[in-house]
C-alpha cells in the first residue's frame, strides 16, 4: 500500500495519489497539514461521549430516516452478506444535524479541514481519470461532492471485547468485511491497529498504522461512477488479542449530492437507501 508525503504538494503528488488509488483502492497520506495532536484531542473528546451511560447517549439516538445521531451497539450494523452485528457503537454527525454540544466545536473544526482536503483529493482523482471516462461524467468528481449534505462525520467506537457477551463476539468482527458506500473515505490517525484491506489477489493485509497519517480509500459510489477505474475494496476491523483494548476512529465519508447519477440504475440517493436497508440500519 502506497504511503505518500503530502508536504511535497507538487503535480507529481496528485498523479502519484491517483495512480495509487487506481491500483489498490487504499492510500496512506502523511504530512497532510492536519496535526496528530488535533486528532488525538478529537478522539479523547468523543471518548467522553461514548463513556456515558446508555440513557444519556440515548438522548442523541439516531433518527431512522436521516440516520443522524447515536447508533447503539444493540443496533450497530450488519455487513452485507453477514448475520452478526459489528462490535461497535457509532455516532453519525451531519452538518446542521444533531451533535452533542461538548463535541460540536472540535468536530466542526476537523470536519471543515477534512472537507477541504477531500475536495483537493477528488480534484486530483478527476484530473487523472482516462479521457473516455471523464467525458461521460455530468460534472467533475469534486463538484459532485461540493456542499453535499450527505457527507458524513462518522465516529466509530469499538468498546473492549470483554464488555460484549460471548454470543455477541462469537463469529463477529469489530467491523465485518465491507466496502464503503460513498465516494472516498478519510480515516485520520486511528487509535490502534486492526484495519485490514483485501488486495486484488484476495489476501487480507494490515493497513499501515502510522502516526500523523490519514488513510484514504475509495468507496462503491466512486467505483460505480468511474467504471471501476478507482476500485472499491473490501476491508474490516478485526478483533484484537487484548480483550481490554478499546479503539476509536473517525471515518469522514464523502458523499455526492443525492441527485447525482451514478449509473443507468442508480442515483446517489437510491443507492444509499438500498445499502442502508441491506445493513439493517433502516
Ligand atoms: Fe469502511
TrEMBL record:
One Pfam family this sequence matches: 2OG-FeII_Oxy
**Keyword Repressor included in the entry's annotation:** no
Cofactor(s) needed = Fe(2+)
Reading the lineage from the top rank, the first entry is Bacteria
Q: Which GO terms describe its molecular function?
A: 2-oxoglutarate oxygenase/decarboxylase (ethylene-forming) activity; metal ion binding
- Reactions that this protein is recorded to catalyse: 2-oxoglutarate + O2 + 2 H(+) = ethene + 3 CO2 + H2O; L-arginine + 2-oxoglutarate + O2 = guanidine + L-glutamate 5-semialdehyde + succinate + CO2
Q: Which residue range or ranges hold the Fe2OG dioxygenase domain? A: 148-256
Q: Kindly list the biological process annotations in GO that this record carries.
A: ethylene biosynthetic process
Give the record's pathway. Alkene biosynthesis; ethylene biosynthesis via 2-oxoglutarate
Recorded hits in PROSITE patterns, A to Z, give: FE2OG_OXY
Q: Does the keyword Nuclease apply?
A: no
Instruction: Return the EC number.
Output: 1.13.12.19, 1.14.20.7
List the InterPro entries hit by this protein, alphabetically. Answer: DIOX_N (IPR026992), IPNS-like_FE2OG_OXY (IPR044861), IPNS-like_sf (IPR027443), Iron_ascorbate_oxido_reductase (IPR050231), Oxoglu/Fe-dep_dioxygenase_dom (IPR005123)
Report the SUPFAM superfamilies cross-referenced here.
Clavaminate synthase-like
What general EC class does the enzyme of this chain belong to?
Answer: oxidoreductase
**Key words of the record:** Ethylene biosynthesis, Iron, Metal-binding, Oxidoreductase
Task: Name the family.
Answer: Belongs to the iron/ascorbate-dependent oxidoreductase family.
Name the PANTHER family on file.
Answer: 2-OXOGLUTARATE (2OG) AND FE(II)-DEPENDENT OXYGENASE SUPERFAMILY PROTEIN-RELATED
Under what name is this protein listed? 2-oxoglutarate-dependent ethylene/succinate-forming enzyme
Source organism of the structure = Vibrio aquimaris
Amino acid at each position: 500500500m502506497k504511503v505518500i508525503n503530502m508536504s511535497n504538494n507538487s503535480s507529481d503528488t496528485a498523479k502519484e495519489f491517483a495512480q495509487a488509488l487506481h491500483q489498490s483502492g487504499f492510500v496512506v497520506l502523511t504530512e497532510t497539514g492536519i496535526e496528530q495532536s488535533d486528532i488525538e484531542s478529537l478522539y479523547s473528546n468523543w471518548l467522553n461521549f461514548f463513556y456515558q451511560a446508555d440513557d444519556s447517549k440515548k438522548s442523541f439516538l439516531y433518527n431512522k430516516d436521516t440516520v443522524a445521531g447515536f447508533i447503539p451497539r444493540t443496533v450497530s450494523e450488519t455487513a452485507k452478506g453477514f448475520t452478526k452485528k459489528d462490535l461497535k457503537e457509532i455516532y453519525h454527525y451531519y452538518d446542521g444535524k444533531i451533535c452533542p454540544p461538548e463535541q460540536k466545536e472540535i468536530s466542526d473544526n476537523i470536519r471543515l479541514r477534512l472537507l477541504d482536503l477531500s475536495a483537493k483529493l477528488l480534484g486530483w482523482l478527476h484530473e487523472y481519470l482516462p479521457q473516455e471516462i471523464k467525458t461521460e461524467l455530468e460534472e467533475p468528481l469534486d463538484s459532485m461532492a461540493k456542499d453535499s449534505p450527505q457527507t458524513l462525520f462518522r465516529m466509530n467506537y469499538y468498546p473492549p471485547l470483554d464488555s460484549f457477551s460471548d454470543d455477541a463476539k462469537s463469529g463477529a468482527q469489530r467491523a465485518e468485511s465491507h466496502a464503503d458506500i460513498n465516494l472516498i473515505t478519510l480515516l485520520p490517525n486511528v487509535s490502534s491497529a486492526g484495519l485490514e484491506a483485501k488486495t486484488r489477489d484476495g489476501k487480507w493485509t494490515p493497513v499501515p498504522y502510522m502516526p500523523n497519517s490519514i488513510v484514504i480509500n475509495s468507496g462503491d459510489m466512486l467505483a460505480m461512477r468511474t467504471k471501476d477505474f478507482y476500485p472499491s475494496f473490501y476491508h474490516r476491523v478485526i478483533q484484537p488479542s487484548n480483550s481490554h483494548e478499546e479503539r476509536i476512529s473517525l471515518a469522514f465519508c464523502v458523499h455526492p449530492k443525492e441527485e447525482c447519477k451514478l449509473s443507468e440504475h442508480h442515483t446517489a440517493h437510491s443507492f444509499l437507501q438500498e445499502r442502508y436497508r441491506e445493513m439493517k440500519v433502516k
